[in-house]
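FAQ: What does the model actually see?

It sees only this:
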Amino acid sequence: MTDTDASPPDPTGNTVPSGPAGLDESPAVTTVAAPAAPTVPAQPGPPVPPVPPAPPIAAPIVFPAGSGPAKASRRWLLPVGTGLLGFLAGAVFVWSLPWGGDGSAQTFTLTGTMALSDSDGFLSLTDNGCAGKGGYKDIRTGTSVTVYDDAGKVVATGSLGDGTRTGLTCAFPVSVADVPKGARFYQVEVSHRGKLTVAKDEAMAGTFGASLG
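And it is asked to produce this:
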């Protein structure tokens, strides 16, 4: 009778023990490997700009003591400033002179006579003096005399001198200093009697003459 419990021979020559009779051998346990996680490809990031090279460091400029740009600027400003101040001072001085570059006077004194020819219009004073009266009482010593240029601008003022009686006339000297040259003609007003036009040559020659009465 065949022994069913006999274990099959081991090819290596060793006897493999068998389990108890009547029990089937346990099935072999097979290990199943877990599935590997899917691989996610790496996402490319933003490009990184290259780092610019550092600029070269310039060597400092070393000036000798007592020199350099500041020293040069001071040397340049000194003669220019001195020259400018000298020019301005000279201009002010020339402008203040009463004559031009050719030595001629820039002003003149307008002279002449204002006469009252109406014997009833003035009264006699002592020492052969006289003065206006009645409608002419504003014509007397110290009465204002105004000079205008050809543009109607007041350029100088003066006054009447002492009146002198000569026959039936009472004459007053006229003197107005510092009348500027350059006008084509002048206008002269004694008191408020209105303007009299005087030619340039006549005004400068001192032959101005006016009369009332």
